[in-house]
Specification:
elongated; 63% helix; mainly alpha
């Protein structure tokens, strides 16, 4: 679920890149929209963490050959 939402951050970083590299103006609507996207991603990530159960294999449990 989280991985599919990460694509939404592309727009936020495109606006930031245009502002930094090209000197484009960032409007209030763009800033608010970007903040909403970032908060949504943070909430989605928080939800993914709470869904992990005790028997879920995590990165630290993986064999050393896969690190």
């Amino acid at each position: 679920r989280f991985a599919s939402l990460v694509g939404l951050s592309e727009v936020v970083f495109a606006v930031l890149a245009a502002w930094v590299l090209l000197g484009e103006a960032v409007t209030v609507a763009q800033a608010v929209g970007g903040a909403i996207v970032l908060v949504g991603l943070a909430l989605a990530r928080q939800g993914d963490r709470s869904e992990l159960s005790d028997d879920t294999v995590t990165w630290s449990d993986a064999p050393a050959t896969f690190r």
